[in-house]
Specification:
The chain is α/β, with parallel strands linked by helices and 767 residues long. It has 23 helices and 31 strands. Among the domains are: 88 residues, Alpha-Beta Plaits; 82 residues, DHBP synthase (Alpha-Beta Complex), CATH 3.90.870; 184 residues, Alpha-Beta Complex (DHBP synthase), CATH 3.90.870.30; 144 residues, 2-Layer Sandwich (Nucleotidyltransferase, domain 5), CATH 3.30.420.360. The strands form 5 sheets. Strands 7-6-14-8-9-13-10-12-11-15-16 form an 11-stranded mixed β-sheet, with helices on both faces. A 7-stranded mixed β-sheet has the order 28-29-25-24-23-30-31, with helices on both faces.
């Protein structure tokens, strides 16, 4: 029995990502080091520790927990409270059974790429896990994709049906073992297994299992076949990336003539043969998330990324991938879905929907509970740019600025890059990427995941927030949810939400806001996308925008850049139209010209995305988009001269808001074409012009308001060249410029902005 005069008892609470990351075993090992008695348990809020020892030793133990936590964990909140009496008298430290006694506030861990220790065992013939494609430990393996509910215990995952064998259970219960309390722990005796399935006359037929299934898959890929492979969060369609005829066949089957394919390489050495890799890029490629990283091309791979100067590479992140890539240097690993639709995750559904691409399937018998696609990241000189936030990053929390009313929020996001967000206790939890919500399977994916998040986090919203465009599917879903649950709903203008997403990340209360994207409904019912705002004292004021142009063809304009080129040429140099957009090549040209000449009342747009389309078509790089944002991506690839001279432009201050007039820009671009200036130089000068516009307008608005912080958001700011040119312009100025870092700057970051914007506007409303 403890002497109460020498021993103290403390309760330690740790919140955040502290379940499913080997945290309780870490606590126990640390407790043994400090000779602590007591226990640790998973609770609805995270981890609870009862520690008995001398007060000084307990404090040292507490500091060690915070300092040495597992790399894959994230402590968001922590506290220590000493208690009046020592009521725990057992002379040991143990892991107690998980409990739930209140509202869940613990967080889910993301899926974690295979660790180096597991890889060594995977390749060791003397290890019982040799060539086992589901090897994992407390430091790696499936998490988010298999968790059905909290607390994170095996029975609450899709591993429930696989009962551990004696050896696995020994690992699971041995404190010193790397698999101590690893919930997905398994081996060839007791765990999931792979299976090769062939579609014969439309019927799936099992052909091989275990190593034979992997060997057959490798042989087929080597012989130029296409195989559907079940990955961590869904299916990939795979083929040999160096087999150009197979890659082109896959393009035809997927109706994907030019969109870049993602690649998986066996090693950094292989990637370095094809791409330049900076130190930051190397770290991201090899970190626990192992996303797709968009790298500058050194040596092109035919048919992989036509007319683009970056290739999307990832390294193997599951044991199954490693086993495949042992024999295959380089694979196309593109999302396993019908174009535009949701990623396939279930075997039977994949057999039905993906057999139009291949008869060959490598699957396994562990269920994917949460479908999650590969994340995509790229680096510019000055910035990390998150393109798609999914595997490895979902559902990592983002801490919000302090907000004390205790309410829970559901933000519905937007449509083109669907995501939603929940917020409570100053923590934002964003969903994975769903794709375009106009596709019914993506909308169903959204609804199912929303139900899951609400359930797993024990979450009941008090307020719903949605985009102000009432025709958005996300907005309609939010309205339906609010009405069904009798909740208030707040509508937020699209471009304001973009700006608030950056302000949320950087905890800003006032800013000059630059919002550049492709589309978004404005307060005047026109289509915005090239906007400047000031945000202060709870108000957003639109201060300037690209001069409106008629959106003659509606949504078709985004798919056919030549239409916007025609509009800009008509506004700037109408006498040059025949040279650049000739009637014999563009059959509907004269119809649109007639509408322009007769000034038929049309919806108007200030979209920067549509301006990029126009320029790309004017210089004959892309007249038709075969995938979303193809034209702007190609234009960015051409802009290689970061020190180019900008074109001329005008700011019309007589209007309110001010108008950014680019007629001189268009005129000078046409002159450069006539003078045979290279497309690279024109693209570079155009990008420099936009950087100049951002800087000049920001300086003017700083002079008006005294606001030094400039926030830039919207899909256009996924353009690394533009971001670097803007950073360069702001260097050594009185202004500070900020971009999104924790969420994508496109519509997938909208939910964070919607929630912070609601906080912000209401904070000042009640002052």
């Amino acid at each position: 029995m403890h002497n109460k005069f020498n021993f103290s008892q403390a309760e330690i609470i740790l919140g955040g990502i502290v379940q499913g990351v080997g945290f309780r075993p870490f606590v126990k090992r640390t407790a043994i080091q400090f000779n602590i008695n007591g226990f640790v348990e998973n609770r609805e809020f995270g981890v609870r520790i009862v520690a008995v020892q001398q007060r000084k030793i307990i404090n040292n133990f507490y500091r060690a927990l915070l300092k040495n936590k597992p790399d894959v964990s994230a402590i968001i909140e922590h506290s220590i409270k000493f208690q009046n009496e020592v009521d725990f008298e057992k002379n040991k430290f143990f892991i107690a059974r998980s409990q739930k006694k209140g509202e869940i506030s613990a967080l889910l861990p993301p899926d974690i790429a295979t660790c180096d220790e597991c890889l060594k065992e995977l390749q060791n013939p003397d290890d019982r896990h040799y060539h086992y494609p589901f090897i994992n430990c407390t430091n790696c393996g499936p998490r988010f994709s298999i968790i059905k509910k909290l607390p994170y215990d095996r029975k609450n995952t899709t591993m429930k049906k696989f009962e551990m064998c004696e050896e696995c259970y020994d690992e699971y219960t041995t404190v010193a073992d790397r698999r101590f309390h690893a919930q997905p722990n398994a081996c060839p005796v007791c765990g999931p297994e792979v299976e090769f399935v062939k579609i014969e006359k439309g019927i799936p037929k099992s052909k091989f299992k275990r190593e034979k299934a992997i060997e057959e898959t490798i042989a087929l890929l080597q012989s130029g076949k296409i195989v559907a492979i079940k990955g961590l969060g869904g299916f990939h369609i795979a083929c040999d990336a160096n087999n150009t005829s197979t890659v082109n066949k896959l393009r035809r089957l997927k109706n994907r003539p030019k969109k870049p394919f993602a690649l998986m390489a066996d090693s950094l050495e292989t990637i370095s043969k094809y791409c330049h890799i900076s130190e930051k890029e190397k770290q991201m490629l090899t970190k626990q998330q192992k996303p797709i990283v968009l790298l500058k091309v050194k040596k092109e791979i035919e048919a992989i990324a036509p007319e683009i100067n970056r290739l999307g590479f990832m390294l193997p992140y599951t044991p199954l991938h490693f086993l495949l890539l042992k024999e295959l240097e380089l694979l196309v690993m593109t999302s396993g879905n019908i174009s535009g639709a949701a990623l396939e995750k279930d075997n039977e559904q994949a057999f039905a929907n993906l057999q139009k691409f291949t008869d060959n399937f490598l699957v396994y018998n562990r269920i994917i509970h949460n479908r999650v696609d590969d994340s995509i990241i790229k680096f510019s000189k000055f910035s990390k740019i998150l393109i798609r936030k999914a595997r490895g990053f979902t559902p990592l929390p983002i801490r919000l600025p302090e907000h004390k009313n205790g309410k829970h929020y559901f933000a519905a996001g937007a449509d083109m890059k669907g995501t939603f967000g929940l917020a409570k206790n100053n923590i934002f939890l964003g969903s994975q990427y769903f794709g375009d919500l106009q596709y019914s399977s993506n909308l169903k994916f959204y609804r199912n995941t929303l139900d899951y998040f609400l359930h797993v986090f024990d979450f009941q919203p008090d307020v719903v927030i949605a985009d102000s465009h009432l025709n958005y599917y996300s907005t309609q879903l939010a309205v339906e949810y609010a009405q069904k649950n009798n909740l208030p709903i707040h509508f937020m203008q699209h471009h304001n939400a973009h700006l608030f997403s950056v302000m949320a990340e950087h905890n800003l209360e006032k800013a000059i806001g630059v919002s550049f994207d492709g589309t978004g409904l404005g307060d005047d019912q026109q289509i915005w996308g090239g906007e400047f705002f000031t945000v202060r004292n709870g108000k957003t004021l639109r201060r300037a925008h690209l001069k409106y142009q008629p959106l003659i063809s509606g949504d078709v304009t985004a798919k056919e850049p030549w239409r916007m080129a025609l509009v800009y040429l008509f506004d700037s140099v109408p006498d040059k139209i025949d040279d650049i957009i000739p009637a014999d090549k563009f059959k509907k040209r004269d119809v649109i010209l007639s509408l322009l000449k007769n000034n038929i009342d049309q919806i108007k747009t200030s979209s920067m995305g549509r301006l990029f389309d126009a320029i790309t078509s004017i210089i004959s790089v892309c007249h038709y988009n075969t995938y979303q944002a193809e034209a702007p991506i190609k234009l960015e690839s051409l802009a290689t001269n970061l020190s180019a001279t900008p074109y001329a432009w005008q700011l019309d201050k007589s209007a309110s808001p001010w108008l950014i007039d680019l007629r001189e820009t268009i005129t000078q671009i046409v002159n450069d074409i006539e003078n045979h200036i290279s497309k690279n130089e024109i693209a570079s000068k155009f990008h420099k012009t936009l950087a100049e516009i951002v800087f000049v307008l920001s300086k003017i608005l700083f002079g008006d308001t005294g606001i030094r912080k400039v926030v830039c958001s919207g899909g256009v700011f996924q353009n690394g060249v533009l971001v670097d040119m803007i950073f360069d312009k702001f260097t050594d100025s009185a202004l500070d410029v900020y971009f999104n870092e924790k969420v994508p700057s496109n519509d997938a970051g909208m939910a964070l902005g919607q929630i912070y914007g609601y906080f912000y506007l209401n904070k000042f409303k009640h002052k």
